[in-house]
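Preliminary data (for renewal application), FE2/S2 (inorganic) cluster complex.
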Amino acid sequence: MSTLKNYFGPGETEGGPTPANENPPLHPLPASWYSSQDIHELERRAIFSRKWLLTTHKLRFPKTGDWLRYEIAGYAFILVKDREGNVNAFHNVCRHRAFPVVTEEGGTSRIFSCQYHGWSYGLNGKLAKAPGYQELEGFDKSKNGLLPIHVHIDVNGFVWLNLDAGESPEISWEDAFQGVDLQPRFKEFNFEDYNFDHAWEMSGDYNWKILADNYNKFYTPSTSNPGSYTVDTKDGKSTPEEVANGLKTSSTYYFPNAAMTVLPHLFFMQRLVPMSPTTCSMRYEVYRNKNSSDDEFETISQIYKSMMSENKDRCVETQKNLNTGVSANGQLHPTEEGPVDFPTVVRGLLAEHHKREEDAGEQIWPARQRLPKEEAVSKEDMDFCSKLTSNDASALTAGGCCGGGCGGGPPTIAATAPETMVV
Ligand code: FES
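Predicted structure:
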């Protein structure tokens, strides 16, 4: 936390950050924010653990028991359709010894069975069996279910997640995005007319914010939804010829890391998954209109794939220059509404969270599970770990002595277990 003062402390110039609630300068984020491990970890806490994340569409769960494994910012989770038809999300962490409950990408199951010691869970996350624990005095099955994640499904069937471990997320979906699913331009499309077709991904050697910035150039901020950005496609940026060729497009970028584009023949979702300060993965899901021919679908699908590859190449080159440290922060033109707004939102969220942590005297990980005393690790153990951490500043910045349970936070993006704490 102490090293973060270099990013938020006084005396910053040349496009340096400003504290929350002040008018930010029209500057992009400093180059260091695209390679710093500290900033990356702070983004995990301040953004990806707090904001609603567009993740997939309910079309991917046609049957009871259909499930998919996802990850974002180091948190691995499962989405599954239960017997009541609900889509649930759980951390992919066994409550016994934290082994992943699923290791495949997806499937259809009646139950989740951990391969390590055989604990099994229902589609609603409840613990079904824990071999050897039946007779254990004081063991309460009802308190050892999978750790849940908040799910919201909007009116168009898109599935959103929020990793905030509170009973209700601090940021409600309604406050952040209400109305974004009711945009008049969506009325032209019936999302039930599409089927999931395929998923694909690319990895990129660049910080996720570079591509988000890149998207942003094509979007204008929504005045009614400050957390979202929508393309002005009242008539589309589509020409009459494009409309005639099935290329009438409506695209929406959802802060922080997702975009969705819908056309008559397909819609596709793109998620930017940060993997480290300087790497990310771009994950795509493509849904095909049931009434489109192979040619119609493939032609448009390929056009978008090559566009995505071009975007990737630009981002890689940008990151190379940012890494040199030579890059100075150019001032943005006020008419560049999209690019101005993205850094402002990021800067504000990080500064606000950092202030909270300074006030609390420790890192705040909103995705950390808050379990009752009797279920959580011992406070004594956590305090022991915290003391070690405070004696080792490098351990703090790297995630703490125990990988997060002590308050130092998970060590790297690869961490999958949600931390527990005593409340
Ligand atoms: S870690 Fe899953 S059953 Fe032991």
